[in-house]
Structure formats: C-alpha cells, structure tokens
Design brief:
By secondary structure, this protein is of the alpha/beta class. Helices cover 29% and strands 15% of the residues. α2 packs across α6 and α4 crosses α5.
Length: 270
Amino acid sequence: MPIGAGVRAWRSVLRTDEKTSGAGLPASRGRLRAVMLAPLVGLALMGLPAAAGPSVAHSGGVQAYFFGDSLMNGTGASPRRPVMARVAAARLGWQVQVDAWGGTGYTTTGRSPGYLDRLRLPGALAGTYDVVLLEGGTNDARNAGDPEAVTEAVHAVVDEVQRRQPQALVVLMGAYDPPPPGLIDPRRAVIDSLVAEVAAERGLPFFSPLSGGWTSGQAPSFLTADRLHPSTRGYGVMGARLAQELTLAVERSGHKTQTATPAQLAGSAP
C-alpha cells in the first residue's frame, strides 16, 4: 500500500509567533498555526483546504520549505494536520511552508503528480527559502527494481530546487518504515540507500527515519489503525527527531544565506 494513497494535500505556512501547548506533542517555543495557501492553479484535487495568505516572517527569521508525501502532510493524525512539521518548526523557531501530497514520490504519483512535476506547478517553491527539505522515498519502494530510474529522478528534483533556490541549503530526508506491528517493506531500505547515495555525491545533508531508527522501540500507539502512518503521538515523536536532525545538518554544513546565519538556521540564535 502506498503511503498516503487517496489522501488530501497540505499546503500551509506554519507560524511560531504565539504561545500554546498540545496534548501528546513535545514542548515547543511557540504555537503553530496552519494558514492554508491558495490551491495551486491547475490542480484538480478535491477537498484541498481553503485559501489564505502566508504569514509574515520574523525579521532575520529562517524561511524553510518542507516538501514531501503523506508523512509530511500528517495522514494518520486526528484531525489530519502536518504535526511533524509543526513540532519541528516550533522547536527550531523557523517559519515553515509545507507542500505535501499523499501517495507521491520521486517516481510515483498519488492524486498529484510526482515530485519534479509538482515543483514545476504554479505556486510551488514560490518564495525565497534558507532551507528546502525534500522528504521522500517511501512510496518509491514500488520502483526499487529500477534503481537507475530512482537515482535519476532524485537528481532531477535536486537540480530543480538548486536552480530555483541557489541560496538555499537542500536537505534530503529518506524513507520510513513503521515499528512493529506495522507494515514493513524491505524495498524501502533500497530506496533509502539510493537517496543517501545522491546526497553523498552532491555533498548534501541526509538523514532518514528508516536508517536512523526513528521508530525503534516505539509502542503500538505510535501508529494509526492503518499500521503504516503515525498517529498524532507518533508524529510528535518524529517532529522532535526532525528538529534534532535539521539542527545537526545545518551546523555541519556551515551554510550561510542572506537572511539567516548558521546559528539562526540551527535554532540557537536569540
């Protein structure tokens, strides 16, 4: 079963400017409010959330674009929302725009085109970002038998992002497998390795829920009823880990932009 098959998409800006707390979610610096962006022109996806304007960034704040599949849009959370991105954004103090569509990948489609075609749609990757996180590979497991095609597709997506966002640090986040008794697919490890190889070849940061053991030792409550997607609690755990991995990735890269210093990117600036 492809991860996120048949689910709606999220395009949102996550704001970290108000205080809050959330049951089951790790403590954060500020509350996140999802503000839905206008549906992309030409998309025929039913049920896309209504439009609203993006948030205004803090002066000198980090602008990030989290791009991915149903893990990033929060399929399994109740109600569905991009919990992993929310938790990570709050812990880092970043302004994060989420562009996530269930069932999609570097070589796969859901109710939306694959990654490269999605990035080329009007409205996608439209801002100026300090960090672009490319999360994916789980759905590409079905194409593990054609590693050359997968590798070429990952390179093409990175090329597109670097061409349009030359100032941004591009970070690759690999595949995911659920904890027991979840639905494990050994082909996901194949894709995970291919994405890691592309990152190494291009000198880009890489981390992965699968190879990083993000779900190791988690209780059954980590998963929702489909035995694949995390629950709200599970996404909270993953969001905390995502913030840690992004902090390390940015610190190790020493990446500098016009709008953020390495300290700010790592979430440690005042």
